[in-house]
Structure formats: C-alpha cells, structure tokens
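Technical note accompanying the year-one report. For the benefit of new consortium partners, we illustrate the data format agreed upon in the data management plan: each record pairs a sequence with a structure-token string. No post-processing was applied to the example shown here.
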Amino acid sequence: QQVESANASYVAARRVFGVAQNNLDLLRIQVGDPLLNADLVWSPYNVTPERISPWPDESGGWRLACVARLEPAAKGQDLLMKTLARPEWRDRPIELNFFGTGPDEQVLRRLASTLQMDNVKFRGHVADVGSIWEEHHLLLLPSRFEGLPLALIESMWCGRPQVVTDIGGNAELCVDGETGFVASAPTVSAFSNALERAWERRKEWPKLGKAARARAETLVPKDPAALFCEQLKACATEESK
C-alpha cells in the first residue's frame, strides 16, 4: 500500500526532479511509469567557476583527495583504502587525504591503522573547497551509490581529473580516459583497475584536468539556483494555463 501510494504521488506530481539521468531512469523503473513530468536539476556547488587553480607542484609526489562524508556504506572509502593497501601502491609517492566528516570516521581511522597506511590523513571539513584543489592532483570517489556528487562538479571546475565509480551521475560528467577514469563497479578489483589506468597516465593529469574544466564549462550551469528558479516558474506557468 505504501509503495503504491508513493508511486501514485510521483505520477501525479506537477514536476519530479532528479540530479542525474541515471537516477531518473532508475526511478522510472521502480515506479513503473515513464514519468513524463520528470526533469533534471543541478545542485548548487561550493566553488566559483571563475576560479581556476594552478596545477599543484609534483616534486613531493602526488596528492589524492577523497571529498565526501565519512560514510563508507555510501561513499566507499573502505574500497579505496583496500585498493591503495595493495602491494603495488605501497612504494608509490602518493598521499591520500580524506576531506569531510561523518558517522564512521573512527571506523575508517581504525581501518587505515589496520592496513598500516601511514600515507592516509583525515583532514576534516574544509569550508573553502577550492583550497583543496590548490594542493591536490586527483579526486577519488569510490561511491557505492550516488546522485551527482558536488565533489565531482567542484573538482572539474577547478581543473582536476577524477577516478569515480559508474554510479549515479558520475559517468554522465566524467568521461573515461578523457576527463578522468571510471571504474565499472564499486568493488576493489574494478576501482583498482581504474586507478591503475590513471596512474599509468599521471603525466597527463594536467591535460585531463583541463578537459574536465572544459566539460564543466559546457555542461554545468554557473548559477544552478537561478536555473532551478526558472524551472519552478515554468512549472507554475504551465499549471495556470
């Protein structure tokens, strides 16, 4: 009964908004209706499109950032640490920084200790997201489920490539081999494969970052809130006719 009531609400709604086409397609399957009233919406992000961060110095190695709430059931930080705990990564000059807070911080800290990962740091919440990309070269998002993560959009605006899982809207923005690398599934083996491909092309990361920035300029609105207001106005206008 509750499922039927929820489905009927989606069908009867004036508008249904989703942040990724993949999410809307899944919703249509779950509801069992084409949902012709569904449309995409962009969430406001926390960097300015006018700010382009210079490529960070590489002389001390490569700095990788995972920007997400510390909740591995959704964000997959455990998959990332298990990937980087593999023997081939042990001696590579990398530093992994987790940015964000969440309910499982202590669990993840214990995992890092158990895996003896001395190159993993927990940096907490950072208000100025753009400052992260002044010092980091690559975004890592090993998500198990997603909408369209703000961290992905923000890293693209700041000219950084990414390694993401093919979940939610990730692959709608991140083009495998062109602006970043897409793991086929949220598993250690799949993410390890994508990250290894990224590592093999690390000298091309600045080029991939520029391509990511260009893709953001093409696809992502500079004022998502204003665009959403226009969508709501159009919705109200249609109802009044």
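Partners are asked to follow this layout when depositing records. The first helix runs from residue 2 to 12.
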